[in-house]
Design a protein that fits this description.
The chain is built from no helices and eleven strands. It has about 120 residues and is mainly β. The chain starts with a strand and ends with a strand.
């Protein structure tokens, strides 16, 4: 199994920055890809960014491209999401997720961390 713990959320003014962290533990050797998702009040959970665990290839949602950067530190078993130029519409609970080598879906999820961007 894989356990994921997010941290780094908080309250920030529009235009500001935050860095989220997601620490993974358990069957780290099985992780193929790590991703960030978010869910705003009254809306469905949406994809934000993803990174392959070994190669570091990245993918971003159009809504955050150019503003957010996903990265990973394999030695620390941690994935990061650097969020710059934050907008009120970025307000959401942010979740990290892990996809294993044999999976096509993200099966493991963290508890979420709240990001609130004020006007």
């Amino acid at each position: 199994q894989v356990q994921l713990v997010e941290s780094g959320g908080g309250l920030v003014q529009a235009g500001g920055s935050l860095r989220l962290s997601c620490a993974a533990s358990g069957s780290i050797f099985s992780i193929n890809r790590m991703g960030w998702f978010r869910q705003a009040p009254g809306k469905e959970r949406e994809f934000v960014a993803a990174i392959s665990w070994s190669g570091g290839n990245t993918n971003y949602a159009d809504s955050v491209k150019g503003r957010f950067t996903i990265s990973r530190d394999n030695a620390k078993n941690t994935v990061y999401l650097q969020m710059n130029s934050l907008k009120p519409e970025d307000t959401a609970v942010y979740y990290c997720a892990a996809r294993l080598r044999t999976q096509t879906d993200y099966a493991y999820w963290g508890q979420g961390t709240q990001v609130t961007v004020s006007s």
